[in-house]
Every structure is written in C-alpha cells, then in structure tokens.
Amino acid sequence: MSAENVELVLTAVDAYNAGDLDALMELCAPDIEVFPDASVFPEADPLRGRDECRSWLEEANSAWISARNETIEAFALGRDRVIHRGQWGGKGTASGIETVSSVTSIYTIRGGLAARIEYYFDDEQALKAVGLI
Questions:
Q1: In terms of DSSP bridges, do strands 98-110 and 28-35 run parallel, antiparallel, or are they unpaired?
Q2: What pLDDT sits at residue 1?
C-alpha cells in the first residue's frame, strides 16, 4: 500500500502543477481536511471538504502566474501517510519575480484518496510533527 500512496501523492502534485484542480480534487476524499501552515497563512483556518480546499488553492495560486510544487522527495511513513518535500512558488503576478519556498506536506491516505494534508514551510517542524526528530 505504501508505494501506491506515494504514487497517489505524486499524481496529485502533477495535477496541481498542470493547473488541473478538477483532477486534483478527484484524488481527495470528499471530506478532506487541509491544514495550511499558520506561519504563512495566518488567516487560514483548517479547511474541510473539496470545495473549501479548492477555493483556498485557487486563492493562493492567484498570486502566481503559474504556481508549481517541484518534488524534491516523497516517501511513505507507515501504511497511511506520505511525506512530500518540494519547492513551491512561481512567477509573481504583480512583480513578475520568480520566487520559491520549501514546503513539506504530510498526506494521510484513506481508501485510496488523500483524507488529510498538513502543510509546513519549515521542514524541521514537519519532521517533528511526524516524530522523525
């Protein structure tokens, strides 16, 4: 199951990078829970359901000409979780400046779909959250 979960996450990241939020949402459970990093998105409460998740992604992506999350690594953590480390960003719509930031996402998989995603812009904080340090 672990390899399939990693593949699911990589497919979701590919859909995100292609700008295909429809395909991305199909890889998420209808009751998905998303936890944006409060240090970067202090106004964002936990998101519940595909509609809230999609709206948040659309709003966050509006700051970029083409938002991307380039995979650095992805690996299974137990049977139901995957850690994805990437470089997220793009060219700013207002400035035209290319910017990227390290982001670590912890996916919990249930029934072959992403059921929970936690975003961290501090790798150490993410690794602590899953007990790896």
A1: unpaired
A2: 63
SS3 77: strand
Q: Out of 16-25, 36-45, 82-91, 119-128, which region has the weakest mean confidence (pLDDT)? A: 36-45
Could you tell me if 106 and 83 are in contact, meaning their C-beta atoms sit under 8 angstroms apart? yes
Which secondary-structure segment (H or E) carries 19?
none
* Beta pairing partners, 101: 88
Burial of 42 (0-12, 13-18, 19+ CB in 10 A): exposed
Backbone angles phi, psi at 92, to 5 degrees: -65, 135
Q: How far is CA 42 from CA 10, 32, 46, 62, 123, in A?
A: 27, 20, 11, 17, 18
| Residue-level pLDDT at 73 | 96
Dist. CA 18–CA 25, nearest whole Å: 13
